[in-house]
Amino acid sequence: MKASDMAFRIAVCLGLIGMTGGVLMAASHNHDLHPAHAHLNLLGWVSLFLLGGFYRMNPSLDTRRGAKCQVLAWSFGTIVLATGVAAIYAGYPQAEPIAAIGSIIIVASMVWFAYFVFRPEPKPVSPGVMAAAE
Question: How far apart are CA 58 and CA 117, in angstroms?
């Protein structure tokens, strides 16, 4: 599977989870978990979908294992961060390290992504120039 396909599929799943959480908060009139909802939607839905768009526009990266691992790291970090933030706002301040670990994973994954964005363009391999025999 390509990195872009992984990013798009995981983004849609996380977006649905985040939106469902938003609907549940609205229905219950309890918006205590809105920070977790916002993190999940912005990192899991919007940012991850944008990562997928970048990889789709760069086919040489789209099939690379490093790009796929970057998408998985971003996704894992988003889930860890959103879980930690939700626990904190649900009244469990001892979950702060969980949110911190998720944040560190996301930042590291962004550095990894930045490498792909700013990396030098690989030079195409030329088969050589052949001249016609005279």
Answer: 10
